[in-house]
């Protein structure tokens, strides 16, 4: 919060005054955050489009609903939807200009929402990086990563949190991609460390998905920096004793088998002393999953390390289609979250 | 295309070749000097990447002379980091040969009756020799570098008629011990393959590849693989009867490897079957058995010869493997020639 500039502070206060709402979350306030997708080019090249698919009006509607649902923060998954001054080549048709982005961030602050950026640097989710996604772990790639993080920190007026993604970097998650790229072992750790360093250099605290822990608890807890806020995910409602038990076999299986450690990972991360931002979702259509997550984590994670919650609808702000729901999933997730909190 | 077929047809002598290594940075992107070689236990024997050549010229010279003396006529040179590419000197390691020295060696080989054919393996499972460019696969820069090194090699080898592109084993399983897994899938695999074919053919050479992609992608391979590409299918066990092949859980895989010779033949591909003495068990007779099996199932006009691959560094500790491969190939060749004369 101390990184807020005078300009954004005044802008935020003006909106606050206009909206008659509370100012964004204070540092010591528990986060009630939602992950919203501005960009969507994150799930393989076959799913990519050369235009931003987010509808402005629906985006604003989702943001408004987030505020109305009691959220105090939004993680904005930027991807291809934000113009990066250092790399304009990453833009697609409809990419938001820096000015448009900043205006929306100010509006969010005015609604009582603290905006945090998210750039997913997992090689499974970096199609938005275009050609640089095919240069992972090269000097040029590292330079681009540093450039983008710096750009985004400036656009967001130096946010206190910065989500770097880094989830699901495994072959099975890239079966449908034309180029499969996976960092393993020391190289994965090197690149995670490098990205964390870039974020910290810009004064933000890194947030990342903790699911790599599912497939290697001991190494993860030993090598991961405690400075990184861990967002472990669990999207089902079964938090039974059986689910709480760590399953070494599933670590070793590779692939999606590790998912079965998602509940146990909350406990493992807490035991290891990590700060956590548990993440729930309505994406599995499991009613009560978000409420179950909130209840479990409040009971089992030490209060001083439980920094709040996040809900991820894993959906876009575009109109629903006859066969596929988009924005209504976001609405539903926010409603679940409101009820759970 | 016309020029390629012309050059191929200009030499009708059957190939009796050996694949020998200049470079060896092809099986792991993890450097030898890494203090903690924390790789999976099954990968302990993987050859790590080195910053210096692992190549004994004395053994190389002796091996090629032995080949010539025995009547073999081709060495496929796995170049890798073994050449200081004029266009990309950054790929050189300590001891990489200059193009001039390589050209002299090609001339020496020619003088003793051995045709030198270059091989650069562009499979992402075997391209550590490409340095940082192995991490830029399918980018404009990658294509430019690949085009450059193919041209450099073509010139250093004094315009050979064939060029082996490798392009084998591009699969996740093969890269488990690697730092960075990179695999082209679907259309991109074909896109890049066609780029390499076009690049090689553009220089008047005939492309040559390992055929193992057919094992799991038979229908698309047969539909899309140009017949101008010379095929080297490979299988390294003794048993060629698909019903009797060993392998436990690999049995079905081995059956596919064996049957690929006939599948390729029926589809009209020219072939140079690859054989080896690299199997510690069950492969002692692979070389004579490959020659006899393939001579039976491949039409003489499409059987362009045989290639033996000892899969060993050209270094003294591998002398026995390399020399043994040559001995067995010479023996099989003599038997084959005898049978042909008898017919």
Walk me through this protein's architecture.
The complex is a heterodimer of chains A (341) and B (343). Helix content of chain A is 37%, strand content 11%. Chain A is α/β, with parallel strands linked by helices. Chain A has one domain: Glycosidases (TIM Barrel, Alpha-Beta Barrel), CATH 3.20.20. In chain A, helix 2 links the parallel strand 1 (31-37) and strand 2 (73-77). The radius of gyration of chain A is 19 Å and the shape is globular. Mean pLDDT of chain A is 91; it is low at 1-24. With 343 residues, chain B is of the alpha/beta class. A 5-stranded parallel sheet of chain B has the order 3-2-1-9-8. Classes of the chains: A alpha/beta (341), B alpha/beta (343). The A-B interface holds A 131, 134-139, 141, 171, 175, 177-187 and B 34, 36, 38-39, 132, 135-140, 172, 176, 178-188.
Amount of beta strand of chain B: 5-15%
CATH topology of chain B: TIM Barrel
Name the beta content range of chain A: 5-15%
Helix and strand sequence of chain B: HEHEHEHEEHEHHEHEHEH
CATH architecture of chain A: Alpha-Beta Barrel
Give the N-terminus to C-terminus distance of chain B in angstroms.
34 Å
The rough form of chain B would be described as globular
Task: Note poorly predicted spans of chain A.
Answer: 1-24
Nearest-angstrom radius of gyration of chain B?
19 Å
Class by helix and strand content of chain B?
Answer: alpha/beta
Q: Any idea of the CATH class of chain A? A: Alpha Beta
Tell me the name of the CATH homologous superfamily of chain B: Glycosidases
Structural class of chain A: alpha/beta
What is the first-to-last residue Cα distance of chain A? 23 Å
Summed up, the helix count of chain A is 11
Q: Trace the largest sheet of chain A across and list its strands.
A: 3-2-1-9-8
Biggest sheet architecture of chain B = 5 strands, parallel
Characterize the overall form of chain A. globular
Number of strands of chain B: 9
Strand order of the largest sheet of chain B: 3-2-1-9-8
CATH homologous superfamily placement of chain A:
Glycosidases
